[in-house]
């Protein structure tokens, strides 16, 4: 018999408080080995969802499964899933070491794990200090150390970046990347896309308790990749030449410029030269994913009439209320200014796309050699 499907799976999850829906028919999956960013503005139902997943809130309807079973059915939950829901859990008069040792005893894991986990999260030097003296960032690290005591396969973190300075954020990012590389699965919530964008390979975006997007981070980036705005003597002719060369995402804008996605300015210029189309200037337009996220979750998204006008919806879009075509948020609209053909443009230099790099790992992995063993 095959075992339960691995990963986290949320199916039709619903929680209503006195007729007020906190989470409505929410379904998403967290693939094993992924870092999945769980995003949504304040009050969008993230914490309620995570609490249902961890068996702390009873769903009104639906299922939240870890390794195919509800949390309550896990044999040794602390060794399957570690959670950080809030960083305030430690007794202020307890030292960090005592705090963890109490948990070790409760979870029946060796007391030596307490010291090992403090070292792992960078709190080794303050192990005997009272947690009441800890900053919020230190408490976040302590909460993470607590979650890791049972060497879980899953980590569920609710806004772990709260209270972390940029250095703490960078540390957390590297830590979670390392955890995932060693086979762990992470579900991490945030209301700021930028906080998780560099580490999450999957994104689940909620608004008002409902799903608005799920998919890979790469797909979202590709859906909103940079485009080149070309001012030229014959945009229609250039668009036809681009299409013949396999570059089909080119649209004439209201201002007369041709907006091209999926080709670099040099390639566009070469095709224009072949077709005897004069290029007056090009401009690379980058998209800030944070703006896309804000537009998705604020409900303004459907009201925009931006780029591109046609084409498939971005991968992962699930909300039928959203416009069926992929669109840029209002911040990326161009003014309705006309660019007459005779107008001269300054040639804008090509700026390479500045998406954050993938997943550098310049640090010691917490698991495997040098770290703790699964
Ligand atoms: N115990 C509760 N009783 C009544 N309403 C609740 C309760 N818990 C949450 N809610 C409501 O459910 C909605 C979702 O809240 P939730 O805390 O899950 O959102 P969130 O996305 O985690 O937001 P935040 O990041 O601000 O914590 C909110 O409107 C909130 O007021």
TrEMBL record:
Keywords: ATP-binding, Nucleotide-binding, Transport. Residues 304-374 are annotated as: Disordered. Residues 318-353 have a biased composition (Low complexity). The keyword Phosphoprotein does not apply. SMART domains: AAA. One of its GO terms (molecular function) is ATP binding. PANTHER family: ABC TRANSPORTER, ATP-BINDING PROTEIN. Belongs to the ABC transporter superfamily. Residues 8-233 form the ABC transporter domain. Residues 354-368 have a biased composition (Pro residues). This is ATP-binding cassette domain-containing protein. Pfam families: ABC_tran. It comes from the Bacteria. The keyword Nucleotide-binding applies. Transmembrane segments: none annotated.
């Amino acid at each position: 018999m095959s075992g339960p499907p691995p990963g986290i799976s949320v199916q039709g999850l619903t929680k209503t408080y006195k007729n007020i829906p906190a989470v409505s028919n929410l379904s998403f999956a967290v693939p094993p080995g992924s870092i999945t960013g769980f995003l949504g503005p304040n009050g969008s139902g993230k914490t309620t969802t995570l609490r249902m997943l961890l068996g702390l809130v009873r769903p009104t309807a639906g299922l939240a499964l870890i390794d195919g079973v509800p949390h309550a059915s896990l044999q040794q939950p602390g060794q399957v899933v570690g959670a950080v829901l809030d960083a305030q859990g430690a007794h202020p008069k307890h030292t960090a070491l005592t705090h963890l040792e109490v948990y070790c005893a409760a979870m029946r894991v060796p007391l030596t794990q307490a010291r090992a986990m403090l070292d792992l999260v960078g709190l080794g030097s303050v192990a005997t200090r009272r947690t009441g003296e800890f900053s919020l960032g230190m408490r976040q690290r302590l909460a993470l150390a607590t979650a890791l005591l049972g060497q879980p396969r899953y980590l569920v973190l609710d806004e772990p970046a709260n209270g972390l300075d940029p250095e703490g954020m960078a540390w957390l990012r590297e830590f979670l990347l390392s955890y995932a590389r060693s086979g762990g699965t992470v579900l991490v919530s945030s209301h700021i896309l930028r906080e998780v964008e560099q580490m999450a390979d999957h994104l689940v975006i909620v608004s008002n308790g409902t799903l608005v997007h799920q998919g890979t981070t790469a797909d979202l980036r590709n859906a909103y990749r940079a485009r080149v705005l070309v001012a030229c003597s014959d945009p229609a002719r250039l668009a036809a030449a681009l299409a013949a060369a396999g570059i089909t995402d080119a649209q004439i804008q209201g201002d007369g410029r041709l907006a091209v996605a999926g080709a670099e300015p040099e390639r566009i210029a070469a095709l224009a030269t072949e077709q005897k189309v004069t290029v007056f200037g090009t401009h690379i337009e980058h998209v800030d994913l944070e703006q896309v996220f804000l537009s998705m979750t604020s409900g303004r998204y459907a009201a925009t009439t931006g780029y591109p006008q046609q084409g498939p919806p971005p991968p992962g879009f699930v909300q039928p209320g959203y416009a069926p075509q992929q669109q840029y948020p209002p911040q990326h609209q161009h003014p309705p200014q006309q660019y007459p053909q005779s107008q001269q443009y300054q040639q804008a230099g090509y700026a390479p796309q500045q998406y954050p790099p993938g997943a550098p790992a310049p640090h010691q992995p917490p698991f495997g050699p040098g770290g703790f063993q699964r």
